[in-house]
Structure formats: structure tokens, C-alpha cells
Structure to design on (461 residues):
């Protein structure tokens, strides 16, 4: 009898305990399924509205890379990558004035060769000494061959209003919308998609979009147009004028309550266009050093090994000196002339390929002043701020992105394109994440980071 009761009570205990365990497990599952995923939060727009997104600026927002503007580069431009992520939080399709092919159109910095070039690619090239190596190769394009890239595109609703090489004053200039002309309008990029040729401005077209959110990145062209040509026949827009222009532009873009993001300008020392060729890359044997000393009257004390290139200083003065530490030779320097014709030794290096200490100070002062203004405008208009200047310093030291290493070393670093000045598509994707970080922080948003499997890095043959 007692044995039977014990069995009954044991069975009852088992069923009650098992039922209680099931209830607890169910409750635990329900409660945990309601908890937010802290590693992958639900995408939200926060305090911003991404329904209508536009981009206004110059080279970096246009997608310019490898020395040209071309279709895939535009499709994977920084704002296009941002727009794709914005679509997860209420954004819409992003309309761009796409180039007709992958060769694209670029402005040739060596204007004596041609007006235009097409996108550079890596290829094998033999130098004046008969040595063959992988190098960026660009195809020049004559004006009469460029008509396909200069044709106007129908439609007045392009959201990427970023124009390569457009200085901030040109964002307000009707001349930029005129048909291309080497004299009256040497910039061919805006006239392709201007709403009213010869009458519209980038600013007016941008304001007409009635955007709810914008990315603005301007000022680089004003400074780096000077730097990319060694200061030759170039001027930097004064900080006072830059302040007036950017304030007017932001005031108009935010007039209807739009929010946005702006970015600082990177330092000269972080761009391989300026840092790849060492100032003392003139390597001489003892015999060559002795010969040059004889030919130049021992003016420069050439020695065996590395020597600073010789420049005319100040430019046009008839006085010469060697370059010193911290001064720059530009990536556009004709290396065959350096290797075989003693350019920068027997013949002084032209100012077009050199940034000397005086010019460096002018450039750095302008960057500091512009970045102070940009930071102030972000505070004044309550905009998200991306410190690209600081970020590019990190890139120079080396960063990891999706498990891969990137740095600013020309070609092998993986971040910059073959022109040494603009990022490649992977570089722009990394930059896009920096923009998203700043936007999320400023507007309490949770926009996911980019995942651009289609973005090209450096393509090897």
C-alpha cells in the first residue's frame, strides 16, 4: 500500500516538475526573443529623415578615382554607398549622372599631353633603362575623341550633385553649367547634367531637390588644386571667402529643416600623391656624383647614395638649392627624365612637380583654417561631422577593415586608387562607414555599415 502511494506521488512530482520546467523554458524563450540584439540592432533613422538624400561637393563625393570619373566608380561612390544603407531606414533610390562606360573621363594634369585622360589601370611598362615593372598606365584622350563624355544627360533630378574639381565658389557659378570650353569653362563635368545649361548653378539645383538629408564635402578642391600643381599659377581661396560660401550653402540646404553631414580636409602628409617619391630619391654612384659636381661647379655637393633633388628657389629667381626633409616631389614627376636625363640634378626640377617648405606652410595653414570653419559650421547648424583629417592619419598608420589590412602606401596599401590622391572603391566604402558612424552618433540612428562585395580595390593584371 505504502509502496503504491510512493509510486503515485513520485509520478505526480515528475509531471509537475516537468511541466514547470517547460513553462520556465517557454517564458525564457519569449523574454529573450523580445530583447534587442545589441550586436545587430534594428536599423532606425533616429532623429534624421533620409527620404530624400543628396550629395554636394567635389572629387571625393563624385566617385572620382584612378584619375577619372567612370560608371562603376560612380555606382560605388561614397554617397551611393551611403544611400544604399539609408534605404534600410526609409531612404529611396539614389539617382546619379552616370558616365557611359568604364573608361571614363578625367582631366590630365599634364596639359601639354592632352586635355583629357581615361581611367588608369595597372600594367607592365618598360622605362628608359629597359627595366619592366607594374605601373599605373593612363590613356590620353583628345578633345575630338571625348564627345561621348560631354553630352548632356536628360533629367533634372540627379541627387549626386558632386562635380570633380569644382571649387566652392564654382558651386554658385553659372559658368560651370556652360558647354565645355578650354577657355570659358574647362570643367566638363557639371555641364553634362545641369538643369539649365548656361544658367543653373550646383547650389540652386541642390536646393531645388528639397532634400531631407545631405552630405556636403567641399574645400578640398580649393586647397589641393594648388597643391597638385606645386603651387604653380594657382591660388587658394581665402579662409574668409570659404567661410562666406560654405555658410551660405549650408543655410540654404537646411532652410526646410534638412539635416546633414560634413567632413574635414585631410593633411598633405597622408596622401600618397605627395609622399610616394622621396625628396632624396636622386641616387648616384660616386662616379656620377663626381661628374655632376664638375658640371655644376660643386654648387650642390652631390655625394654617393641618396641626394635631394635640385630645384629653382624661389621659382624663377635663378637661384638653386637641394630639396630637404619634409618637402615633396609629386607623383606626376616624369620619372624617365629623372632616371635618364638627370632632371632634378643637372637640370632643376620644375616647380610644377615640387612642393617646397614655403608652399607646404601655405597649404597646411589653409587646411587648419578650413577645418576650423567646417567644425564650427557643424556645431552652428547641428550637423554630423566626419573628421576625415584624423581618420586619414589612422589609414596612414594602418587599419583593418573586414579582416583585411589597409594603409596609405601607393598601390600596395589598398586604400587609394592609382592616381594616389583619391580612394579606390574599397577606400570609399571604408570612408562611408566613417560617415555612418558620425551620422549614427549625431542623430541617434542605427544605420548598418556598408558591405560592398562589389567594390573594386587595386586590380592587378
Amino acid at each position: 500500500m505504502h509502496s503504491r502511494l510512493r509510486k503515485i506521488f513520485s509520478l505526480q512530482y515528475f509531471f509537475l516538475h516537468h511541466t514547470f520546467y517547460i513553462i520556465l523554458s517557454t517564458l525564457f524563450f519569449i523574454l529573450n526573443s523580445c530583447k534587442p540584439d545589441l550586436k545587430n540592432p534594428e536599423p532606425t533613422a533616429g532623429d534624421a529623415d533620409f527620404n530624400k538624400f543628396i550629395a554636394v561637393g567635389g572629387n571625393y563625393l563624385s566617385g572620382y578615382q584612378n584619375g577619372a570619373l567612370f560608371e562603376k566608380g560612380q555606382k560605388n561612390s561614397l554617397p551611393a554607398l551611403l544611400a544604399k544603407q539609408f534605404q534600410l531606414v526609409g531612404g529611396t533610390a539614389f539617382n546619379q549622372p552616370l558616365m557611359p562606360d568604364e573608361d571614363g573621363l578625367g582631366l590630365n594634369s599634364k596639359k601639354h599631353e592632352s586635355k583629357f585622360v581615361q581611367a588608369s589601370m595597372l600594367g607592365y611598362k618598360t622605362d628608359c633603362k629597359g627595366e619592366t615593372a607594374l605601373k599605373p598606365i593612363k590613356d590620353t584622350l583628345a578633345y575630338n575623341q571625348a564627345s561621348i563624355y560631354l553630352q548632356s544627360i536628360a533629367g533634372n533630378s540627379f541627387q549626386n550633385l558632386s562635380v570633380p574639381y569644382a571649387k566652392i565658389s564654382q558651386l554658385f557659378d553659372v559658368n560651370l553649367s556652360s558647354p565645355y570650353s578650354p577657355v570659358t569653362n574647362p570643367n566638363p563635368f557639371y555641364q553634362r547634367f545641369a538643369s539649365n545649361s548656361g544658367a543653373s548653378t550646383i547650389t540652386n539645383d541642390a536646393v531645388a531637390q528639397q532634400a531631407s538629408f545631405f552630405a556636403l564635402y567641399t574645400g578640398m578642391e580649393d586647397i589641393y588644386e594648388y597643391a597638385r600643381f606645386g603651387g604653380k599659377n594657382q591660388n587658394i581661396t581665402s579662409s574668409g571667402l570659404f567661410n562666406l560660401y560654405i555658410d551660405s550653402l549650408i543655410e540654404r540646404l537646411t532652410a526646410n529643416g534638412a539635416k546633414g553631414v560634413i567632413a574635414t580636409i585631410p593633411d598633405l602628409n597622408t596622401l600618397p600623391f605627395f609622399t610616394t617619391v622621396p625628396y632624396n630619391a636622386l641616387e648616384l654612384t660616386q662616379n656620377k656624383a663626381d661628374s655632376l659636381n664638375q658640371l655644376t661647379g660643386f654648387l650642390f655637393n652631390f655625394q654617393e647614395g641618396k641626394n635631394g633633388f635640385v630645384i629653382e628657389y624661389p621659382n624663377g629667381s635663378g637661384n638653386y638649392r637641394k630639396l630637404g626633409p619634409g618637402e615633396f616631389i609629386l607623383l606626376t614627376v616624369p620619372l624617365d627624365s629623372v632616371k635618364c636625363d638627370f632632371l632634378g640634378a643637372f637640370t632643376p626640377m620644375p616647380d610644377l612637380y615640387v612642393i617646397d617648405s614655403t608652399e607646404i606652410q601655405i597649404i597646411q595653414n589653409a587646411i587648419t583654417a578650413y577645418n576650423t570653419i567646417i567644425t564650427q559650421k557643424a556645431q552652428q547648424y547641428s550637423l554630423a561631422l566626419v573628421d576625415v583629417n584624423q581618420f586619414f592619419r589612422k589609414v596612414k598608420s594602418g587599419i583593418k577593415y573586414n579582416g583585411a589590412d589597409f594603409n596609405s602606401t601607393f598601390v600596395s596599401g589598398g586604400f587609394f586608387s592609382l592616381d594616389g590622391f583619391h580612394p579606390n572603391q574599397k577606400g570609399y566604402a571604408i570612408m562611408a562607414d566613417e560617415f555612418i558612424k558620425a551620422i549614427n552618433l549625431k542623430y541617434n540612428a542605427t544605420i548598418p555599415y556598408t558591405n560592398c562585395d562589389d567594390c573594386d580595390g587595386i586590380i592587378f593584371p
